[in-house]
Amino acid sequence: MDRLKALSGNSKGAARAVAAMAPAPQIKSPARPDPEALRLDARFRLADELARLQSDDERAVCETERALAARALSEPAVRAATAIHGLDRTLEINALVDELREQVGRVQVDDLRRPESMLVAQAHTLDALFASLVRRATSNMGGGSLEAADRYMRLALRAQAQTVRTIEALGELKNPRAVAFVKQTNIAHNQQVNNGTTESSRARESENRPNELLEQTHGNPLDCGKAAETGRTDSDLAALAARHRPADGRG
Length: 251
Known about the structure:
disordered N terminus; mainly alpha
């Protein structure tokens, strides 16, 4: 009996030793999403497209996928996110799309805090650029390089002009101008305005006008009867004699 207990105890110890030597099972972590891959998910799908994507009709699935991709890639937020991602590859493009869509939604409900802060930051950046270019221009001017100084000064003035435009845009955003809609009113007596008259119609009217004047005048037709014959009426009249003429004052 003691021997059996000893054997059983040895077997349990051996089993523990084998279990300790065996490699631990590895737990796989979920795959990290590709930061450069845009997910065509429910953010871009229409209400009836999910059913078509899950259907057995391969043609309908293919057409729906093409329409979904075109809609997603043509969205302004996706285009802007693609441009920003090209400047910084560490950013995840789907997170950029979500943030830009949220900013667009805020502007659509008249929340302009983000555009205002953006314009203020850009104005300060342009002002710093102006100061840096002016320093470079004065440094080259003191060193005798007038050509380089002129180039830097021109760039500085361009940065200054863009700063002014940015500040003006900020002012327009804060205090937009009132738009007045003025309607034209023509008030006159016995006046007719033909805005749709073309040159061809005017030409036709001018061509027909002489005929109208010859045919009718104030509702009375023109007398086109036979011409009267010439006669000798007032034949007794003759030229004035010399005694009836006024005297010549010259002599």
